[in-house]
Amino acid sequence: MAALPETVARPIVVQKYGGTSLATPARIKRAARRIATTQRAGNDVVAVVSAMGETTDRLLTLASRVASEPAARELDLLLSTGEGVSAPLVSMALNELGVAAVSLLGFQAGIQTDTRHAKARIVGMTPARIQRELAAGRVVVVAGFQGVGTEMEVTTLGRGGSDTTAVAIAAAMKAQGCEIYTDVRGIYTADPRLVPEARLLPRIAYSEMLELASAGARVMHPRSVEIAEAYAIELHVRSSFQAAAGTIICAEETMMEDRNRVRGIAHEEQVARLSVVGVPDRPGIAAAIFAPLAEADIAADVIVQTASHEGITDMSFTVSLADSRQAEQILQGVAKEIGARTVLAQNGLAKVSVVGSGIRGQAGVAATMFRTLSGRGINIEMISTSEIRITCIIDARRVQDAVAALHQAFNL
Ligand code: ADP
Ligand code: ASP
Ligand code: MG
Question: What pLDDT was estimated at residue 260?
């Protein structure tokens, strides 16, 4: 008797579809056709989906209509329903095309997170169910952005978190590819909605993409880029509306040839500054200010301490606008304890950042950035840098102007 043919594992492809790409029934069907084509080409496909269109925003508005400060766990349960709608719809559309498919919520797909509602981190992934479904010949459609913490509590990963669901699954399943389908052609030198001349980048390094994403470029969720780098998963960011190649996010070594001083410009509106004024300058003060913020899960960003004068100093830093009220309340308490004079809060600020691995050791980049902003009469309120990023805090009303001017100044 002839030996049975060995079953050959099919390559696994993870595809993530963003909200705009699923905003209408017609778009859901279009995504389903692409998934079907990929499967029929001989791949096992896991599709990770976001909520349809503006669903998540609408759910947030709805919550704000019934409660001034909705409980975090209730909000997470509410927000998770957006992806709970799109996943079965995509699965049904696949069935309609004659493709066997099954949709899974985050907990069914084995996405385990910590318990920090609204900003949960994936801490583990049990892909057994996904593997079983793929082995049975089904496409698996996973609701992105959500997971499960201890006590079976539903959590969400932060706005834009479906990217992270997709990359985490690609890592756990040792996928052949991870494709991020979105509403632009790929990663551009600046947000193409703000700067029409922005150029599509064929490749970008993980490190650069991480800085851009952390500095506000919404196109990728920062954590997704971290995971992709840690597990060496190349990401292909591309349009769900056309077939053209997009941007490959990959290791820096593989792209030495096209290194540039500055690769992109990111911006983030909705920034607030908090200042603790008249702080006695002694050891332990910074810890006294930032520890309670960290405990409340509030990330302090650009931090500036002024030179102390007669033993008194000021400490300023930025937080996202959403966190500013809570941060101010916490600081009022801290100010009393450490004997600071007062706490000031200023909204209406924005961050603009230039990013590029070629910035390392290039003093000229900072000088060009400052000169360009001052040339437009834009005041720099605060500055911070990393090895490959320079960030300035400016008036939010000048953002568009600043990004366009910097884009031009760095010949992007
Ligand atoms: P999705 O719903 O597909 O996840 P997002 O709205 O989260 O889509 O991200 C895509 C958006 O990111 C684009 O429409 C674009 O306006 C914005 N964006 C910001 N910076 C960039 C950039 N450098 N390159 C491409 N898109 C960017
Ligand atoms: N639906 C969620 C959001 O709007 C997650 C995502 O789209 O990635 O933020
Ligand atoms: Mg997104």
Answer: 59
Residue with tokens 């101010």: 328
The pair of structure tokens assigned to 349 is 């600020």
Tokens standing for residue 167: 């990359």
Ligand 3 midpoint to CA 16 (Å): 10
User: Which parts of the chain sit beneath pLDDT 70?
Assistant: 1-8, 254-260
**pTM reported for the whole predicted model:** 0.92
Ligand 2 closest atom vs CA 82? 1
Q: Order of strands, edge to edge, in the sheet holding 154-156? A: 122-125, 111-113, 146-148, 154-156
- How far away, in angstroms, is 188 Cα from ligand 1 center? 9
Residues in contact with ligand 1 (CB, 6 Å cut-off):
18-21, 50, 160, 182-184, 187-188, 190-193, 217-219, 264
* pLDDT tens-digit readout, 329-381: 999 999 998 999 999 999 999 999 999 988 887 888 999 999 999 999 999 99
CA separation for the pair 305, 286 (Å, rounded) = 9
Provide the pLDDT for residue 360: 81
**Could you give the C-alpha distances from 135 to 106, 140, 141, 155, in angstroms and in order?**
19, 11, 14, 28
Is residue 277 within a helix (H) or strand (E), and if so which, with residue range? strand 264-280
Task: Supply 240's token pair.
Answer: 């769900």
Reference 211, options 229, 197, 194, 199; nearest CA is 229
Both tokens assigned to 386 = 């990393």
- The residue length of the chain stands at 412
Q: Residue 270: left (phi > 0), alpha (psi -120 to 50), or beta?
A: left
Which ligand is located closest to the Cα atom of residue 162? 2
Distance 60 CA to ligand 1 centre (A): 20
